Amino acid sequence: MARSNPRLEAALGDITAARVDAVVNAANRQLAGGGGVDGAIHRAAGVTELQAACRVIGECAPGHAVATEGFKLAARWIIHTVGPMWRDGAHQEAEILASCYRSCLAVADELGATSIAFPAISTGIYGYPAQLAAAIAITTVRETPTDVTLVCFVAFDLDTFALYQQLL
Ligand code: AR6
């Protein structure tokens, strides 16, 4: 299939309701579940099933991505990626965050997913400044060759939504 630029959209709301092939989870290295969007995805997909699938995979290093089924989600797959914990910006945070977006698109291509929804990876519990993270998210997706045709950036708060709208 010819690679062309995907359509990029911003949305406001709960990513667990996204009608896409693949929903991205902002996970931790242990894939152990947690709070924030990770907790919401586990609850919506089914905690027992998703935890079991994650246990089979084991770990995921920051900047990488792995896939499980979507279980009870409308989405067929969940792509789990581990963002950087923000320290001061001098610890490869930007490189690792960009790598998350690239890795998720690569996994989506392997799966044959053509639509994907991203949360604002690392901007919650991991403390990444939202404006910097939004710029990396959109720039990286724009620069990454992929067969995905629709990328939706799902904000959970109005400020993040406004950032995406400005950048798109
Ligand atoms: N839909 C869309 N976005 C959401 C939702 C939701 N249902 N819930 C929260 N967000 P965070 P991180 C937004 O903390 O910073 C977990 O414990 C949230 O407002 O979920 O990458 C993991 O297990 C923020 O904008 O992820 C890790 O330990 C964004 O999602 C750790 O948190 C990311 O916030 C990962 O931290």
Architecture overview:
With 168 residues, this protein is α/β, with parallel strands linked by helices. The protein has a single domain, classed as Leucine Aminopeptidase, subunit E, domain 1 (3-Layer(aba) Sandwich). It is 38% helix and 20% strand. The protein contains five helices and six strands, in the order E-E-H-H-E-E-H-E-H-E-H. The chain has helices spanning 36-45, 47-57, 93-111, 130-143, 158-167; strands at residues 7-12, 22-27, 65-69, 77-82, 115-118, 150-155. Strands 1-6-5-2-4-3 form a six-stranded mixed beta sheet, with helices on both faces. Helix 1 (36-45) crosses helix 2 (47-57) and helix 4 (130-143) runs parallel beside helix 5 (158-167). The longest helix has 19 residues, at 93-111. The protein is globular. The mean pLDDT is 97. The structure holds ligand AR6. Ligand AR6 binds next to strand 2 and helix 1.
CATH architectural name: 3-Layer(aba) Sandwich
Give Rg in angstroms: 14 Å
The number of helices is 5
**Measured distance between first and last alpha carbons:** 25 Å
Largest sheet: 6 strands, mixed
Number of domains: 1
The ligands bound in this entry are: ligand AR6
* Alpha-beta classification: alpha/beta
Instruction: Determine the CATH topology.
Output: Leucine Aminopeptidase, subunit E, domain 1
Task: Name the quaternary structure.
Answer: single chain
Instruction: Using the alpha-carbon principal axes, give the shape.
Output: globular
Strand content: 15-25%
Question: Largest beta sheet: what is the strand line-up?
Answer: 1-6-5-2-4-3
Low-pLDDT segments: none
